Amino acid sequence: MNSQQDVIYGLMNDLEEVLDKGLPILPNVVVVKKDSVIEILDNIFSALPEEIKEARSLIRRKDELQYEAQQRAEKIVADAQAEANRLLSEAELLRAVQREAEKIKEQVINDCEEIKRKALEDADAVRNQAIDEALRTRDGASVYAEQVLVNLEQNLNQLQEIVKNGQVQLERRRAESESQFLDYAN
Q: How many CB atoms lie within 10 A of CB 171?
């Protein structure tokens, strides 16, 4: 194990030398040969013990699993939020439908009350008209009956006059006849 550490430390020293030999262009900025750095890094990775490679692989797998779990959790939360929104909008829709149904019910009740009120008014008007018509008919019948009775009375008076005149004439004729008979007899 010490020999692997020595190899890694030696490669790190090589990397440090490449950086030191690089061309400084700014403070803390150095231009180096890319191929040299990549070769040293590849050698460092190759020299790492298997445990470190496995640990690195496990860390990568852990990160992948965390990412997948995070994605699934976010999807579950998003799905739950969408379902909650759907249920909430359904509940709001149901409340809106119930409010509209109440409005329609109230309108129907008001319309029925108005129809009932108008029907009662119309019934009262028809009843009052029938009463007025009956009173006019009764009054008209009374006037007609009175006229008939007055006419009948006049006719009866005329007939009575005629009867009296007839009786008077009969009495006169009888008296004349008797007087003629007595004159004849005498």
A: 10
Number of structural domains in the chain: 1
Does residue 39 contact residue 61 with C-beta atoms inside 8 Å? no
Task: Tell me if 49 sits within 8 A of 1, measured CB to CB.
Answer: yes
Strand partners, 23: 31
Whether residue 43 contacts residue 12, with contact meaning beta carbons closer than 8 Å, is answered with: no
Alpha-carbon span 12 to 37, nearest angstrom: 10
The set of residues, in sequence order, having a beta carbon less than 8 Å from that of 104 and lying 6+ positions away, is none
User: Does the residue 153 lie in any domain?
Assistant: no
Residue 56 maps to a domain: yes
Instruction: Please answer whether residues 32 and 72 qualify as being in contact, where contact means their C-beta atoms are separated by less than 8 angstroms.
Output: no
Cβ proximity of 56 and 71 under 8 Å: no
Q: Which residue has the tokens 């029938």?
A: 130
Q: Could you read off the pLDDT of 106-164 as tens digits, one per residue?
A: 999 999 999 999 999 999 999 999 999 999 988 888 888 899 999 999 998 999 999 99
The whole-model pTM stands at: 0.36
Q: Is the Cα torsion angle 135, 136, 140, 141 positive or negative in sign?
A: negative
Domain boundaries, position 50: 2-71
Cα atoms found within 13 Å of the Cα of residue 157, Cβ hemisphere only: 6
Give a yes or no: residue 176 inside a domain: no
